[in-house]
Amino acid sequence: MAVDYTVIVLYLAGMLAMGWWGMRRARSKSDFLVAGRRLGPAMYSGTMAAIVLGGASTIGGVGLGYQYGLSGAWMVFTIGLGLLALSVFFSARIARLKVYTVSEMLDLRYGGRAGVISGVVMWAYTLMLAVTSTIAYATIFDVLFDMNRTLAIVIGGSIVVAYSTLGGMWSITLTDMVQFVVKTIGVLLLLLPIAVIRAGGFGAMKAKLPTTYLDPLGIGGETIFTYVLIYTFGMLIGQDIWQRVFTARSDRTARWGGTVAGTYCLAYAVAGAVIGTAAKVLYPELASPDDAFATIVKAELPVGVRGLVLAAALAAVMSTSSGALIACATVANNDIWSRLRGAVRRGADPGPGAHDEVSGNRAFILVMGLAVIGTAIALNDVVEALTVAYDLLVGGLLVSILGGLLWKRGTVQGALASVITGGLAVIGLMAGYGILANEPVYYGLLASLAAYVVVSLATRPTDETVLAAWRDRLAGRAPELPSEPVTAHQ
What we know:
This protein is globular. The protein is mainly alpha-helical. It starts with a helix and ends in a 16-residue tail after the last helix. It has helices at residues 2-23, 29-34, 41-52, 55-68, 74-96, 102-110, 115-145, 149-198, 201-208, 221-237, 239-245, 251-282, 292-300, 305-340, 357-378, 382-406, 412-433, 439-458, 464-474.
């Protein structure tokens, strides 16, 4: 394992070096939070694919393939569908808004007063997403070094917090691009063909497994519907995803770059399911489906290649963790703390004075990072935590966000009623049906929609001045943003 260890250590050192390099580029709030809104198509596509394909998509996707066969691809497949829908239908308009958070978009659309409540819901979602990603380090480091769970979380989490705090979105963008390349080589180009060959090829896999393993709908229609509801719609409204859209150089980059990333996700989904199916042929009696990834990597890959593939799994976890961390810190600072202090700057990028805000945002990433590591150490059931986060996100915020983008008659009162009703309905139904039940998000979403429509129709329409400013922003006709000094390194 010495060669494999060397590959992993070099990879982790490279992540820290990227963080230091990114720090030199993060000279303004725009640089620090959204990479200066300057990413071109290639880098935008790679980093967007990196953040949505995390440990759940890699280790969990292979596990679902082990448990259900080819239909195990549906979870990651619905993530790709969500990214495609976001890119084709909404990303261009989102990029033209020139905001930093989803709550700022709600304030622009409805004329204020929706930001703090929606910010709290979004903060809870991004925090739990970061926590669950951080816990995954324990699994990977246990495979690599037989390491204590707490120590693994501290080491993995500290590396992510370090490079994220140093350079913000620039550091995360640079590291995510490396992680995208590592994942592509490790999972698609190495592990996938080797796993199929070791299992005897597709013919042998078909002969040795039940026919349900080759049924694309074998996982069940209700499960697929729930995946669509949670993951496809979740991709449309998550702060971690929107913050990447904000990094695009143009609305064209956001649309086409995101489409490429979404298509990549679909291929990644199928690859994970096939790898898991091959693992079922090779190791039919594993204690847990989630052990399939580590088992096939350790037992079937040659030295060096094994280290690279394990680095790919680590890359998947780190990309999601860092993206969720900066999203969590951005929401905490811009949507909650600044608003409570009365320091709200709606909509547009601030002027040269914003350079002083870099240190504030850096401090929030550090504080949120420490909170994430501490919560990850204390938390045991990550599945329940992530389910609560996604159910609150979709049940509480989906209607008000998509309603604002699609329905002119929606009002701020309707949006607030939607967020509160949907959120409380999800929490109450979880208490009745159980956290992992499907009913809370189903009925919570319906309650949110009903509240939005009824209250919006019962209240005065949004002021035409607010709507006119909103339309100008969506069309890219907003006043020119104050220019920021360009330094030599840029």
